[in-house]
Amino acid sequence: MLRRLLVYMLAAGAGLALLSARAVAAPVFPPGIRIGLEPAAGLTLSRRFPGFEDAERHVAVTILELPAAAYDKLMRSATAKDQQGMTDVQRESFTFASGIGYLVSGEVRENGIPAHRWFLIASAAPEAVPNLAMLLRVEVPEPARAVYTDAIVRKMLSSVSFRRVPLQELLGLLPFKLTAMAGFQVAKVSRDGVVIADGGSENPDKPYAIISVGRGAPDDPSDRGRFARDLLTRAPLRDLKLTLAEPIRINGRPGHEIRAEAIGLDGKPIALVQWLRFGGGGGFLRIVAVARRQDWDAVFNRFRALRDGVAFK
């Protein structure tokens, strides 16, 4: 009985060790990036570019996200005879965690130092991760090849994984935070800003707001009204008619408000407001809030509460 118990305990310990090893060997994704991998020992997340690096040995793993439409161009480049100074070029189909890609490798000279370079090209299945093509580049100078061997690099590349970036992670990358949602929900987040909507989906029949940041605003307050009008008139709207335009203060900062009416892209009448909040160095926060004209009076105070709840980090 004691012997059997000891066998069970040893088996359980081995199982826990295996689970622990699997937990450690998980793909790492740079913040906001849909592509990740299990970095080889010595590589850490880069602060200079999307990817990983060993700064001491000058080893870099660079991740480039592209629209799915770029995949064909990437493949034409990968199969071209001229590989931009790369010699001893090898090409092959390559299986990795999230699919099958095309791997190109060869020798290069970088700043007079010989190095080995790998390119992994792939696209994600649209149902898994929509509109994603990938170019992943690994560069290992010759002095580091003893540490980052071909086998280690290939094992790392085989771990490449795709994902949908969690909403809270994307929101955390924005330079502002939303402290009052006024009953709205997040519909879409990008690196440029966020779309807030009733019901949390992009539906032109529902009130929505687009919040973003930009640069290039004039420092002279007398030019800000013209700047605000120019921004709004670039919107793809028909029969745009301004009903109010005036400088205001938003959360203690200088701003500008424009209210307007127009015909939306679907041909239905809408009302909208654009708020700009100006910061230093030409920076500004922009909120454009839109609703059906018949819904405007009921929703405007909610838009204003949303505006007042946007705070810079």
- Second CATH tier, the architecture of the largest domain: 3-Layer(aba) Sandwich
Shape: elongated
Question: Which residues sit in consecutive blocks of at least 5 with pLDDT less than 50?
Answer: 1-24
- What letter string, H or E per element, gives the SSE order? HEEEEHEEEEHEHEEEEHEEEEHE
Instruction: Tell me the strand percentage band.
Output: 35-45%
**Biggest sheet, spatial arrangement of strands:** 2-3-4-8-7-6-5
CATH class of the largest domain: Alpha Beta
Q: Distance between the terminal alpha carbons, to the nearest Å?
A: 62 Å
Under CATH, the topology of the largest domain can be stated as Protein Transport Mog1p, Chain A
Largest sheet: 7 strands, antiparallel
Percent helix range: 10-25%
Mean pLDDT: 89
Structural class comes to: alpha+beta
Q: Provide a count of the helices.
A: 6
Domains counted in the coordinates: how many?
Answer: 2
Radius of gyration: 26 Å
The total beta strand count reads 18
CATH superfamily of the largest domain: Mog1/PsbP, alpha/beta/alpha sandwich
